[in-house]
Structure formats: C-alpha cells, structure tokens
Design brief:
single chain, alpha/beta, 2-enoyl-CoA Hydratase, Chain A, domain 1, 2 domains, eight-stranded mixed beta sheet, disordered N terminus, Acetyl_CoA_COase_a_su, Acetyl-coenzyme A carboxylase carboxyl transferase subunits beta/alpha
Length: about 500
C-alpha cells in the first residue's frame, strides 16, 4: 500500500518524496466521539489524520508515522495518539528506527482532554523507544503546531523542516488571540526554527526521503561542506616549524613554545571543521546555534561515528550553547552505541558576561560529565590550540591524539601572564614554562600520540585509535599522569 504523502492542500506529493508502506498498522482504529461534541462527526478509520506502518529506506526497514494536514487538520485525537503510541512500541519490539512526516494543527479540540493526554502518552512511547537504543527522525511540514509539535514530533533524535513551513507551538490565530497581535513574518517559520537550533536541517520535499535514509543510517548522507574562503588541504599549510623531526621542541629561549602557539592560531591553519570534512565520508548535521562547535552523525571508513568538531574560524570562543550541542551529540552516541570523535581547537571558552549568565561553567561541567559517562569508545584529536577547560571538555576521551603543530595548556599564555605576572606581554615566557607543545605533552603522558600533519597520516591514526580505544581509558591516562606528578 502506498502512503500518499500529500501537501496541506491535498495535492499529490512531488516526485521523489513518496514512501511505500510494506505493512500498515492499526488501520481499523476509529474514535468513539467521547465528548459527543456538537456538529463533530468522528472520521472513518481510513480518514484519520495519522497512518502508521513499515517502510523501507535504502534497504533498511523503519516504522513510519505519517501525520497529514489534509485529514482533519492533522490533529491528534485518540486514534492518532493510539496509532503513534503503538507504532513506537512495535518499533521498539522489532528494533526498528522510526521516521515521521508531520503536518498538524495540534490537538483535536472536539475530543477535549482525551486528545490532550495523547501528548504525554506519545512522549512516553518515544522515551521507551529511545531507551532501547533506537533512533528516530522527523520531517516537519506545513503546518506543524500545537500539541504534536510540543510532544512527540519535537522529541525525535533528528528533525528537519520543509522550507517556508509554518512551525510553532501556537498557530498565528492563537498567537493573535493570546497576545493581541499576529506574529511577524519572520516568526513561526521553518527558517526561524532552523536559525534557533530547533531543527537540524531545512530539506525540500524532493530530498526528504534521502535525508530520512541518511538520518537512520541507511545511507551515508551528503559530504560535510566547509564554507568558502577557509583553509584548504594540503597546500595551504606546510609542515609545522615548531618542532624538529624527532618531536623535540626547539630551545625555549629561541621562542619555540611561543612559535608553536602562534602557529597553532594561524589563520591559514585548518580547524576542526576542515578536519571533520576531510575525515568523514557522510554527514547528518546536529544543529546548534553557536558556530564554535559543529556536530554530526557521520560516516568514517564505512562506519557510523558521532563527531563533535570545534571550529575556531566559526567562533574561537565557544559559549554555553556550543557545549549544550556537544552534550546532545555525546548523549546520543551513548544511547545509540556509537563511538565519538572530537576535534579540539579553541583558546578557551567565552568568558563574557552574557556567556557567564548563560551558565558556561555549568555547561562545560555537564559536557565533561557526558564524556565521563559515555559507555562507548571516544577519541579526541587536538588540531590547533587547546586552551583551558573549554578545550578539555572535548578532550576527556579514551584516546587523545595531538597534531604535531598543535598545543594544549592550562590557560592561554596571555591570560595566564595577566594572572601570574599582571603583565600579558610575558606570554611568550609563560608559554615555555607551560610545556604545551605536542612533544612535551606526549612525554608527560598527557596525550597518547603525536600525529604528523598529513591527511593520510591523520586518518590512519584516527581509525587506529577508534579501533583500539576502550571505554574508561579516558581516566586511566589522566590518573597515570597525575601519579607521575606526585612527590615521592
């Protein structure tokens, strides 16, 4: 049976967006009209707003929840809620991911509280599915509002929206009634939801099938795109001049450590986003609002891995939202049983008053907690400058690699000199005292390996680390380094 994925006006869907139901579920369910609402006639089972069943995306079976606006405004009454709950439960029992196509006006008012309580029921069903280590993905079409948007549709692991779709908790008429005016044209849109990190992607209808396939891992997804004007491989960056071939730092008096710091900060040096694009074969974005951190469900050498990449060129000082995105990605990897790769490059987290008020310290702590609780293997790669707790939040990993020209220190040398000497100009001197170069970090046992700065070498080192890392090694290395630093 074909699920006719219709537009809000009921027209046939555009080519490429249709999915075929291999098996339809609960097609005989219908409402008993529990309120006997005036002038309301409960729809026939075949005319209900939600249909569910099994689809196949690129050879992978998934449970489908299809919520159609052209059927009673896509509203969620008792039948819709029950079908959604049963769909998630069957998917849990059969170990299937869930994909959803959503267009809804919210709760079915003519069924009153019987309708409203479906928000909680569907949320519980999503929670059980997630707790089983299974993934869900939804495409929000126009409109997606009210009780559907405020329950199960916003709880899926990945969310895309159709460009120009109306997306919001309250529809425009509700907003006008409550606030006294209609929302501006820039509000309650897919583009606004995307800008604020509420959906991960904007996907036109012809591309929604392929996005869903990539989201559930049936396909690798599109390659990660790096914005124009960024550093390129391999011609834009020579072998770092901060160390000799044997990894010994140059004489500190000659400014070797400070040269390493300035080299790691060079505008021509690739940051985490460039390395993520080079290392991965496919990418499904987990969107955040702080460009200092990017995250995605990625494919690396045919295997799925969650990647969290700091992007110094996007924002050198990540704030609270960046660390919340990192937590989301790490928690998702933990639940799905996927390894994590982090790419570290920041002189430090944002210390500004707005960042402080936004809880940056607490978000760094929660990121460290997510990394500590991760039940799968993790690998960190320091690609530029590692500075203070903002960098360590993504470096608390089972294997920690560092590029030959990268550095890592307890604090940026300038800030450290301002604290210790009340003179930031002494930063080059302090850099040498911090012993922050790749070779010095390796000799101290603070990192596992120094990696040559060639794409092939980095890829090989990352793959080897992912293959050998074991959950819990993240504390073994730091405990051993700590023991070496204790007086005997």
């Amino acid at each position: 049976m074909t699920a006719e994925l219709a537009s809000p006006a009921g027209r046939d869907d555009v080519e490429g967006a249709a999915l075929s139901l291999r098996e339809e579920w609960d097609a005989d369910l219908r409402s008993a009209d529990p309120l006997r609402f005036p002038e309301y006639r409960a729809p026939a089972a075949a005319d209900e707003s939600v249909r569910t069943g099994v689809v196949e995306l690129d050879g992978v079976e998934a449970a489908l929840v299809e919520c159609r606006f052209d059927r009673h405004g896509g509203t969620m009454g008792v039948v819709a809620g029950e079908r959604i709950v049963r769909a998630f439960r069957r998917a849990t029992d059969r170990r299937l991911p869930v994909v959803a196509l959503v267009a809804s006006g919210g709760a079915r008012l003519q069924e009153g509280m019987f309708s409203l309580v479906q928000m909680g029921r569907t949320a519980s069903a999503v929670a059980d599915h997630a707790a089983a280590g299974l993934l869900s993905a939804a495409v929000l079409r126009s409109p997606t509002t009210g009780g559907v948007y405020a329950s199960w549709a916003s709880l899926t692991d990945l969310r895309a929206a159709e460009p120009s779709a109306t997306i919001g908790f309250g529809g425009p008429r509700v907003v006008a009634q409550v606030t006294g005016s209609y929302p501006p044209a820039t509000s309650h849109t897919a583009e606004s939801a995307h800008a604020h990190g509420l959906v991960d992607a904007l996907v036109a209808r012809p591309d929604q099938r392929s996005w869903l396939a990539a989201a559930i891992g049936a396909a690798p997804g599109a390659a990660l795109r790096v914005p124009p004007g960024r550093p390129r491989y391999p011609d834009a960056w020579p072998r770092p001049a901060t160390t000799r071939a044997d990894d010994e730092p140059r004489d500190a008096a000659a400014g070797g450590a400070w040269t390493a710091v300035t080299g790691a900060r060079a505008a021509s040096r690739p940051s985490g986003l460039e390395w993520a694009a080079m290392l991965t074969d496919g990418w499904v974005e987990l969107r955040g609002t702080d460009r200092g951190v990017r995250a995605g469900l990625a494919t690396l050498d045919g295997d799925r891995v969650v990647v969290v990449a700091m992007d110094r060129h996007g924002n050198p000082h990540p704030g609270p939202a960046a660390f919340r995105l990192a937590q989301r990605a790490i928690r998702l990897a933990d639940r799905l049983g996927l390894p994590v790769l982090t790419l570290v490059d920041t002189p430090g987290a944002d210390p500004s008053p707005p960042s402080e008020a936004g809880g940056v310290a607490a978000e760094i702590a929660r990121t460290l907690l997510a990394a500590a609780e991760l039940r799968t293997a993790s690998v960190g790669l320091v690609v530029g400058e590692g500075g203070s707790g903002g960098a360590l939040a993504l470096a608390h990993t089972d294997r920690l690699l560092v590029l030959r020209g990268a550095v890592f220190s307890v604090i940026g040398p300038e800030a450290g000199a301002a604290i210790l000497y009340r003179d930031a100009s002494r930063a080059p001197e302090l850099a040498a005292s911090f012993r922050l170069t790749a070779g010095e970090l390796a000799r101290a046992g603070l990192v596992d390996e120094v990696v040559d700065e060639k794409p092939a070498a980095v890829r090989a080192a990352v793959l080897a680390a992912l293959a050998t890392a074991r959950p819990g090694d993240r504390t073994t290395r730091t405990t051993r380094a700590t023991a070496s630093a204790l007086a005997r």
